Amino acid sequence: DRAIPDGYYRIKVQQIIYKENDPDMYLNIVNGRPGWKRADHGVDLAQIWKFTHIDGTKYNVQNMGNGKFLHKGDSGNNGAYINFSDAADVAQIIAPFEAMNGQFYISNEADSTQYYDTGDHNNGANSQSALKYWSDRAVDGGTAWVLEPISDEEFEEISANNEQIDLNYELKNTLATAKRLYNQNTTYTYGD
């Protein structure tokens, strides 16, 4: 069986303008939707996707940052934004290009002639965008992706780091609130 093994993956943009000039672009969460953005602050759970093989080239694909699944577009039309779902109710199609160069294209069983594209890339000037449907696919194009496996051990380490980052933000916010409340409720006197 030549299926992609079940497990954790990062999905890297292979559009040539990014591949050659800004290669750290990964599938991620952008404004609450599936999207891509630069991974310039290291690896976090929003960049990790759990693949579960269903049959053939069909998979359930779950984001580890929000626990949601890749779903389908707002409509079956070119340019429609891709959505998340709470349940794995639309199988994702992940297949290699005929060139067998290590790149894959992604679609879904509901709209299988539309492919997940980098969308609003602005000819390489943008550093993030939500995914959109595109009615064509091409090697080194906006619909080309590479899968980077993440071992269970790496996943556990990323999870632990993610929890620490969350705790750091929580502590920073709590200290800022405490400082604001202290200053708000303290009478300051000046001079003798």
What does this structure look like?
The protein has 192 residues and is of the alpha+beta class. Helix content is 20%, strand content 34%. It has helices at 16-21, 152-184, and strands at residues 7-13, 25-30, 33-38, 49-55, 58-63, 69-73, 82-85, 92-96, 104-108, 115-117, 128-130, 132-134, 145-150. The strands form 4 sheets. The chain has a 6-stranded antiparallel beta sheet. Strands 2-3-11 form a 3-stranded antiparallel beta sheet, with no helix packed on it. A two-stranded antiparallel ribbon has the order 6-7. 33% of the residues are buried. The model has no long low-confidence stretch (mean pLDDT 89).
What's the total helix number? 2
N-end to C-end Cα span:
84 Å
Helix content: 10-25%
- Sheet of most strands: 6 strands, antiparallel
The neighbouring-strand order within the major sheet is 9-8-5-4-1-13
Computed Rg: 20 Å
Helix-strand sequence: EHEEEEEEEEEEEEH
Structural class: alpha+beta
Round the mean pLDDT to the nearest integer and report it. 89
Low-confidence stretches: none
- Can you count the beta strands? 13
Provide the β-strand percentage band. Answer: 25-35%
Query: What overall geometry do the principal axes of the alpha carbons give?
Result: elongated
